[in-house]
Amino acid sequence: MLSLVIPEKFQHILRVLNTNIDGRRKIAFAITAIKGVGRRYAHVVLRKADIDLNKRAGELTDDEVERVVTIMQNPRQYKIPDWFLNRQKDIKDGKYSQLIWQTLQCVFVCTVDSVKSYCLQCCLCSVKRCSQSQTDLLIS
């Protein structure tokens, strides 16, 4: 017979970056519940934080959770390569970054707004057959 021994400080649900994480899953797969964090990125972050990949998410201490969050928010400071990040050469500032839930939502809204503006500009030009300067006046 197998019996599961649960440590005293086991947390069944962790709250990390505004996301509920199941404490019963292995940490490498549990943090993929956070938007913008995939399996490969999770493995790299956990290796940089020196956390055992076979550990359950509920077994993590507060210090370990804080290390993981810090590395996820600042991947370039911990020498995670640029080609590994999900936002390469941002259109506005040309920087490399890893977008996770908080910033991902903001960037999505900004991108949708810029696409709407671009489509509006193209539609106005095709209907009115106007120049770029006239279109800028129509939009503003």
Automatic annotation (TrEMBL):
Keywords from the UniProt entry: Ribonucleoprotein, Ribosomal protein
UniProt key word Ribosomal protein: yes
One Pfam entry name: Ribosomal_S13
GO cellular component, one term: small ribosomal subunit
Entry superkingdom: Eukaryota
UniProt record similarity statement: Belongs to the universal ribosomal protein uS13 family.
Quaternary structure note: Component of the small ribosomal subunit.
Family matches, as PANTHER family: 30S RIBOSOMAL PROTEIN S13/40S RIBOSOMAL PROTEIN S18 (PTHR10871), SMALL RIBOSOMAL SUBUNIT PROTEIN US13 (PTHR10871:SF3)
Full protein name: Small ribosomal subunit protein uS13
Organism: Cyprinus carpio
Name of the gene this protein is made from: rps18
